[in-house]
Design a protein that fits this description.
Number of domains: 1
Structural class: mainly alpha
Order of helices and strands: HHHHH
Length: 72
């Protein structure tokens, strides 16, 4: 039980450091995960939708193109 409280507190601290736009994303994702019968692949698809556009610039490059093919 103590471990759960520590994990909860750690998450709360991380959330407090987010900008408001990121908090909305986190809240939406938590709401989605709280729904019954959540499918893992659907969860991952939604998470991908919430990726910040700035990450696309980092991840979408010719050097990583081989890795893009691994999940297909």
């Amino acid at each position: 039980m103590q471990t759960d409280k520590i994990s909860e507190q750690r998450l709360i601290e991380k959330i407090r450091h987010l900008v408001p736009e990121q908090m909305v994303i986190v809240e939406n994702f938590i709401d989605f995960l709280s729904q019954p019968n959540t499918d893992v692949s659907l969860t991952l698809a939604v998470a991908k939708l919430y990726e910040p556009p700035t990450l696309h610039k980092i991840w979408d490059n010719p050097d990583d193109a081989e890795y893009d093919q691994l999940d297909r």
